[in-house]
Amino acid sequence: MKYAHDTESPIFSYNSEIEISAVVNLVYLAARDSYRVEREDKAGEGYVDFIFFPDRRNADAFILELKIDSPPEDAIRQIKDRGYMLRFQGKLGETPKYTGRILAVGISYNKKTKEHFCKVEQL
Hints:
Elements: H1 2-8, H2 17-27, E1 35-42, E2 47-54, E3 61-68, H3 72-81, E4 102-110, E5 115-122
Parallel strand pairs: 3-4
Antiparallel strand pairs: 1-2, 2-3, 4-5
């Protein structure tokens, strides 16, 4: 991710969350072969930055939240606290659409050090 961020982002927007989102889109471009990728999708009590819906019912699903100047643990906590995983469980009385694991991915970026951090947890 750092390489893509360093080589593809304009210097004037380098530190913005919108630019980080564009870098995530670039890095995860190949995921579109196996996932439907949605940005700012309604999930639980808010809008998740990225959500990866697998093409196969039993494949792993991903919820990706971005944070700037916060640790990736804050992103994971937001995913849990706001119930973003409900997006994969279907509506009340429905059979869940996905049977694979649901993974919470927190990616953070430190503006001062220009470092990226990532944490993944199974929900």
